[in-house]
Write a structure and sequence with these properties.
The chain is mostly beta strands and about 300 residues long. It has 4 domains: about 10-75, OB fold (Dihydrolipoamide Acetyltransferase, E2P); about 90-145, Nucleic acid-binding proteins (OB fold (Dihydrolipoamide Acetyltransferase, E2P)), CATH 2.40.50; about 165-220, Beta Barrel (OB fold (Dihydrolipoamide Acetyltransferase, E2P)); about 225-290, Arc Repressor Mutant, subunit A (Orthogonal Bundle), CATH 1.10.10.10. It has 3 helices and 18 strands. The strands form 4 sheets. It has a 5-stranded mixed barrel with strand order 1-2-3-5-4. Strands 8-7-6-9-10 form a 5-stranded antiparallel beta sheet, with no helix packed on it. A 5-stranded mixed barrel has the order 11-12-13-15-14. A hairpin with a 5-residue loop joins strand 9 and strand 10 (about 140-145). Helix 1 crosses helix 3 (about 265-280). The chain is globular, with a radius of gyration of 25 Å. It starts with about 20 loop residues before the first strand and ends in a 10-residue tail after the last strand.
């Protein structure tokens, strides 16, 4: 199964302090016999434990993951993990011992899930959803106890209809596919509106389709609003010109065929070709569209 993808890059806020368990952008501040030291804007320093960069100068920015090592020292690594503190990630168990379970998460040292943070037994070789957090010694650990972190109902005003969000694909239900929205909420993608293969643990961009009366979220993989239709009309025209003036999709084409070609729903596609038809730029057939004024091909006997 697909594991969680590399996480998003840090925001500019990470320049102003060292965030343990997070990706930071720090400056190379000095080098001595111990190695290269990185610092934030306040001058707080951390040792880079990896091999030094091939080319670097004092003052260069370096993207690193900052953590507390087994000796309880602050350390920085240029190797970036699959997830960071506050993320929810789908990770594989690689070993179990008397401390707990250990996860593969993209770092040299595996990630610990203490037994106290397991609400069910974890099996080696299996993947599960975990929340990453800092323990009382500021070490990064993980938990399977997600109910305290993911809500079914949103806080009013926290997300808006049409807003672009990060989706972490979870389980299939009778209605569709459950997804974790921005590491905070559960939402639902309806099966009849999904035209691509989705894999458990996959991160995809999505949009808030509806905030229901019970404050639960309906989701979509497609941008909401007419702006998407306008952008699609340009793509359709470009594709028509690149393909001799015709495309083998039309008013009656299957949704999957439309998605394969343009990555949009049939509804958005029909809105786009309808707009082009009103402008008298294309002719719409059941399973084909073509540019207006396109000469019929010569058919030889």
């Amino acid at each position: 199964m697909l594991q969680s993808e590399p996480l998003n890059r840090p925001s500019f806020l990470y320049y102003f302090m060292i965030n343990i368990g997070k990706i930071n952008i720090l400056k190379i501040s000095k080098q001595n016999s111990s190695g290269i030291y990185l610092s934030d804007e306040s001058g707080k320093q951390v040792l880079l434990v990896d091999k030094k960069p091939e080319k670097y100068e004092l003052g260069d920015d370096v993207e690193v993951f900052v953590y507390v090592d087994s000796d309880e020292h602050l350390a920085a690594s240029a190797q970036l993990p699959l997830a960071q503190v506050d993320d929810i990630a789908y990770l594989k168990v690689v070993s179990v011992n008397y401390y707990g379970a250990f996860l593969k998460w993209g770092m040299k040292k595996e990630l610990l899930v203490p037994f106290s943070e397991q609400h069910h037994e974890l099996e080696v070789g299996e993947s599960y959803f975990f929340k990453l957090f800092l323990d009382d010694k500021k070490r990064v650990v993980a938990t399977t106890k997600l109910n305290q972190f993911i809500a079914d109902e949103i806080e009013v005003g926290d997300v808006l209809v049409g807003q672009k969000v990060d989706l972490l694909i979870a389980d299939k239900t009778d209605l569709g596919i459950k997804a974790i929205v921005n590491n905070r909420y559960w939402g639902l993608l309806y099966e009849n509106e999904v035209f691509q293969t989705l894999i458990k643990g996959q991160h995809v961009d999505g949009y808030i389709k509806t905030i229901r009366d019970d404050l639960r979220l309906d989701l979509t993989l497609y941008e909401i609003g007419y702006k998407k239709v306008e952008l699609l009309t340009d793509r359709i025209l470009q594709s028509l010109h690149e393909n001799g003036g015709t495309l083998a999709v039309g008013d009656k084409s299957e949704p999957a065929a439309i998605y394969t070609l343009f990555g949009v729903s049939k509804k958005v596609f029909k809105q786009a070709i309808g707009a082009l038809y009103k402008k008298e730029l294309i002719i719409i057939e059941q399973n084909m569209i073509r540019l207006v004024g396109l000469n019929n091909p010569l058919i030889l006997p």
